[in-house]
Design goal:
The complex is a heterodimer of chains A (about 350) and B (about 300).
Chain A lengths: L7 H27 L11 E7 L2 E6 L6 E8 L10 E3 L2 E2 H7 L2 E7 L12 H20 L4 E6 L1 H12 L4 E7 L11 H8 L4 H6 L1 E2 L1 H9 L3 H14 L4 H14 L5 E2 H13 L9 E2 L2 E2 L9 E6 L7 H4 L2 H4 L5 E6 L5 H4 L1 H4 L2 H11 L3
Helix pairs in contact in A: 2-15, 3-4, 5-10
Chain B lengths: L2 H35 L15 H4 L1 H21 L1 H43 L14 H18 L8 H48 L7 H21 L1 H31 L5 H33 L1
Classes of the chains: A alpha/beta (about 350), B mainly alpha (about 300).
Chain lengths: ~350, ~300
Amino acid sequence: MNKIKIPVDLILKNIEESRKETTSKLKKASSVLTGDLDTGISQTPYEVVYKEDRVSLKHYQCDDVKIKTPLLIIYALINRETMLDLQPGRSVVETLIGKGVDVYMIDWGYPTRKDQFLTIGDHVNGYIHNTVEEICKRSGVEKINIMGICMGGVFSIIYSALHPHKVKNLVTTVTPTNFDTDKGLLNIWMKNTDAELLGDTYANMPGDIMNLGFLLMNPARLMIDKYVGFMQNVDNKQFVENFIRMEKWIFDSPDVPAATFKQFIVDCFKKNLLIQSKLEIDGEVVDLQKIDMPVINFYGKFDHLVPPEACETFTEAIGSSDKEDVCFNTGHIGIYVSSKYQQEFAPKIANWLAERDN
Amino acid sequence: MTDANRGSEVAKLFESWMDTANKFWRDVENSREETLKWGDVNLDFGLKDGETDDDKYRTYRSWETSVKNFTTFLKILSAPENQQAMAESSTSFTEALNQAAGDSFENLLEFQGNLIQSFARASEYTNSYNFDNLDHSAFQSFRDLYTSEWQKYLHIPKIGLPREFHEQVSDLVDKSNIFYTYIAELFYLFSLPFEKSNYSIQQKINAMLEQGEVENDPTKLYNEWIKILEGNFMQLMKSQEYTNLLNGLIRSLADYKAVKNDVTNIFLEEYQIPTNKEMDEVYRELYVTKKKVKELTRRLEKLEEKLGS
């Protein structure tokens, strides 16, 4: 019988080395965590130029406007628009301004119980339309450029179909339009559960519950590995600062008004009405053929929240002849915050808008 | 034992119980008379103006009458001519009790049987990344037992002035019981990917040790473990079992929260604090009014524009 030898001396040596390494790391970590950390987000200067109920319109300072048509960014009601301006050097807003885009962005604020009856129509035909009017008035233009993100992209599409005369160019990013797919867990769950009940149960859909749902889509990575990674790099000041910025953003989750949440689940996830041009908003059908302005549609190949299958059929369904799909090899958030796509995403938008700014 | 013999045994038991009860109440009566005769203790607290002896002891007299009536009733019941009827009715009563207990006991046994089978199936080996043969019916068995056996006691019709309150509290207990079985099931389900991943990685380590190999870099093992865990979770999340559970959880949460709000509202109303329900009515009115005002303002602005031009 062969006797198997275990290199005990090597194991003991490794343990000793790890111990020394850990002790040194902890000393450094202590000085990093107790020292001055720059974890501020949303630092690009702006002023609030319009306010209605909880909603405000941010206008970013741009000293050298090269594209005369202003751009309105419409973020989702889930999480906050600060993701587009995480930190200097990693900010979509900063890059767009740098390219001469006059940027406005809607801050949806924090809905309270009194906002529970607000529908998608109230957001699109109310808040969005009023902000568009305000921007037109301020800039002296008839039409503006619109860029929508995720659920905000859905709102942008609805707005563009209902008010095409107000939209010069439309940019959709990670925007779901075809909900009839089983590629994303959200699609599976929303289709096969009575999630809309939660709207009534809580009056508004709590942001924390939605966040928990997103974490549970990949608990191994989002609830374990992420923090193991943090501990491995806890002695790296820059890593810690970036990590805290992301934590600040990701757990800053406003509630979603109940009526909007229910309408989104039932009409979009369950009935898939938007892509079929059957969705009705305030009694009016959202006909995608009415989207006749230039459209560029970005999505991520590895997006686990809005899979490519949910995005890529949009441009086929619209009336515009000037349209383009751009698929990046990244995930839902990577498009906006990864270092690699900082060089590709926002510059591509600025160039595309500049080409159509006649 | 034949039915006749059983009846006679029950009759004897009943007779002896009647004798004991008779003696007890007779002793109580005697002791009361003795107490009133105590010379040293003054039980006469004096009569107030216009108060007769009957008024003074009216509570006691009412009690005394009740005791006397009850002992008379016991005497009648224990009379020889009533023995047979009593024996028969007590047998029926015993049978009814046995029947009720028997039903519950049978259901309990069935539940235990299901539970044992479920645990046996759950502990069977299943492959990594496979949740098709998942067995978590122990929780469903518990819910079945709960709904068939215990829920009915919470649904006993409530009576009297606080009927509605009692009904809501019972409903709250009922709904929370169901909700927490789903929560327990969810935790159980989440434990499975860990169990499978740990088992996979342990097997790998074991195989390496048998070859005399040791992984010098624990990070490599961790990376492999987290990859397996991610895969296992992904499979679980995509499974029909998980979606079904999620739906059950959402529905039971909605039911539980609704009735919890109802009960909370009772207390808020008691302290005259506006309830969510009341505030929601105000918010709805506010929402409708604001919408109308905005629409009218828009129309007015258009009219002014037209008039101005």
